Amino acid sequence: MTIAVGQKAPPFKLPSTKGEVSLAAELKQGPVLLVFYPGDDTPVCTKQLCNYRDNLDSFADLGVRVVAINPQSIDSHNKFAVKYDLPFPVVSDGDGEVCRAYGAKNFLGMTKRQLVLVGRDGVVKWSDSNLPIFHQTAADIRAAIAGLDLA
């Protein structure tokens, strides 16, 4: 079950490629797009995160910050982030608790491809889930969230 729009986003504080990331601290800087994805350095995930990297201005002019999350190790995330020059934090949810809290685990316990936009107020404003072989582009996301109140 995915997290519902209008629900309070579960807080977290986890290690990332940019140091420790706290949802509360990120929200002080603006709305946050949480990008749950199945695996580092896999074809679709790489294409997805590189699309977000190349189109960060699609989010920045809305004040939205990108944070990618999955349960892989910080070592794996660091290699992935360096290889593809990912400018946003890639968070290690080692025990998968944050992924579970946001409904980003499938019935087999694997991380699924899910996007969750959290407004500055800590409330989920938008959510979308895709099959592992598909992903939303930055343009798709921008079109979906452009008219939302992200306060």
Feature tags:
151 residues; alpha/beta; Glutaredoxin; 7 strands; 31% helix; 21% strand
What does the model show?
The protein has 151 residues and is α/β, with parallel strands linked by helices. The chain has a single domain (37-145), classed as Glutaredoxin (3-Layer(aba) Sandwich), CATH 3.40.30. It has helices at residues 23-29, 43-54, 56-60, 74-83, 97-101, 138-145; strands spanning 13-14, 21-22, 32-36, 65-70, 90-92, 113-118, 124-130. Strand 4, helix 4 (74-83) and strand 5 (90-92) form a beta-alpha-beta unit. The longest helix has 12 residues, at 43-54.
Blueprint of the fold:
Layout: E1 13-14, E2 21-22, H1 23-29, E3 32-36, H2 43-54, H3 56-60, E4 65-70, H4 74-83, E5 90-92, H5 97-101, E6 113-118, E7 124-130, H6 138-145
